């Protein structure tokens, strides 16, 4: 996974001059896992600098938006994520976020979800 970890370098806005607090490091390690955190933070946290991304369509964002906003029955997508393979300088492959789009569910979708939840509750009784 490609992830750029940013911290305030100059200490402005509550930053601490680019250093991680122990609490931030512990929380990040808990969320990501020890190995993932070590991988993502090695080299000063600039993992994305050494990657060569595969090319993607120029209108990728538009296509992702069209996918989630489509009026096709049963589509019901709220998120569209494009994952892409990239190569590190050493030649390792990594899977990273390429692009994405999301939308809020409309009123009809919210009502249908609420109704489905009520039906499930009735079946359990």
UniProtKB/TrEMBL annotation:
Places the protein is found: Nucleus
GO molecular function terms noted in the UniProt entry: DNA-binding transcription factor activity; transcription cis-regulatory region binding
Region (Disordered): 1-22
Annotated ranges, domain Transcription factor MYC/MYB N-terminal: 60-116
Assigned keywords, A-Z: Nucleus, Transcription, Transcription regulation
Pfam family, one: bHLH-MYC_N
InterPro entries reported in the protein's UniProt record: AIB/MYC-like, MYC/MYB_N
One cellular component term from this protein's GO annotations in UniProt: nucleus
Entry protein name: Transcription factor
Upper taxonomic lineage: Eukaryota, Viridiplantae, Streptophyta, Embryophyta, Tracheophyta
């Amino acid at each position: 996974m490609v992830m750029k970890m940013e911290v305030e370098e100059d200490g402005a806005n509550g930053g601490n001059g680019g250093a991680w607090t122990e609490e931030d490091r512990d929380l990040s390690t808990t969320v990501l896992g020890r190995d993932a955190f070590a991988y993502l933070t090695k080299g000063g946290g600039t993992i994305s600098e050494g990657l060569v991304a595969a090319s993607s369509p120029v209108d990728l964002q538009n296509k992702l938006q069209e996918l989630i906003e489509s009026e096709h029955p049963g589509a019901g997508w709220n998120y569209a994520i494009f994952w892409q393979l990239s190569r590190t300088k050493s030649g390792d492959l990594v899977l990273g976020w390429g692009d994405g789009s999301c939308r809020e569910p409309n009123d009809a979708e919210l009502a249908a979800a609420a109704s489905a939840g009520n039906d499930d509750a009735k079946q359990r009784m």
